[in-house]
């Protein structure tokens, strides 16, 4: 027999809920949230680390919005994570911040759920978001970004070290000029982190 928290996740998987709100005490609820005043840091958080906390802190100061971590049970390029793994990752946030759990893989889908929100991302993910290969071509990419715009969402982007170079949003040549207004840069002097969750996992091994 599933417990209360497991029932929430079952309802999310079955499409009965768009998202689950988990407060900093670890309690699950389906509270209605004003996304127009929300900042969302999405990620796999495998593991959650100090860089995530610092990025959320800086982005919160820049935007003056209520901030949330967001974990999806699905991923654009990875397999759906198990219920046990969902609980393992959620436990990392206890006393550290509110978490939103969803099954939205792409930011197009997220923008329908979190209308009016600002998403905080790294430059490496920003480059992927602007890669037409994920959308079936340039027209699909344009349609996706315009959907995000029409849902009154946008991005604030932190610089990241990848491909042997530190990149800010201004270095990403694959962003079309017509779409750059959706991507605001966090200045390097406010935030810079050169290590990723993947690298932390490798070090832990």
From TrEMBL:
Give the InterPro entries listed for this entry. Cyt_trans-like (IPR004821), Rossmann-like_a/b/a_fold (IPR014729)
Q: Where do the Cytidyltransferase-like domain residues begin and end?
A: 41-201
UniProt source species: Photorhabdus heterorhabditis
* Gene Ontology MF terms in the entry: ATP hydrolysis activity; nicotinamide-nucleotide adenylyltransferase activity
Protein name as annotated: Cytidyltransferase-like domain-containing protein
Please provide one cellular component term from the Gene Ontology annotations of this protein. Answer: cytoplasm
Pfam families with a match to the protein in the record: CTP_transf_like
């Amino acid at each position: 027999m599933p417990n209360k928290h497991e029932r929430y996740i079952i309802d999310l998987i079955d499409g009965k809920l768009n998202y689950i709100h988990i407060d900093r005490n670890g309690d699950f609820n389906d509270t209605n949230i004003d996304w127009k005043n929300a900042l969302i840091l999405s990620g796999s958080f495998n593991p959650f680390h100090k860089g995530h906390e610092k990025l959320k802190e800086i982005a919160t100061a820049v935007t003056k919005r209520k901030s949330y971590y967001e974990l999806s049970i699905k991923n654009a390029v990875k397999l759906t994570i198990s219920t046990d793994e969902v609980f393992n990752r959620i436990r990392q946030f206890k006393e550290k911040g509110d978490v939103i759990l969803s099954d939205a893989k792409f930011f197009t889908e997220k923008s329908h759920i979190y209308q009016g929100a600002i998403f905080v991302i790294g430059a490496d993910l920003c480059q992927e978001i602007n890669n037409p290969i994920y959308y079936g071509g340039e027209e699909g990419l344009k349609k996706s970004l315009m959907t995000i715009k029409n849902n009154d969402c946008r991005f604030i982007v932190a610089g990241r070290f990848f491909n042997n170079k530190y990149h800010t949003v201004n270095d990403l040549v694959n962003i079309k000029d017509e779409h750059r207004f959706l991507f605001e840069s966090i200045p390097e002097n406010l935030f810079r982190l050169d290590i990723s969750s993947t690298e932390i996992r490798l070090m832990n091994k």
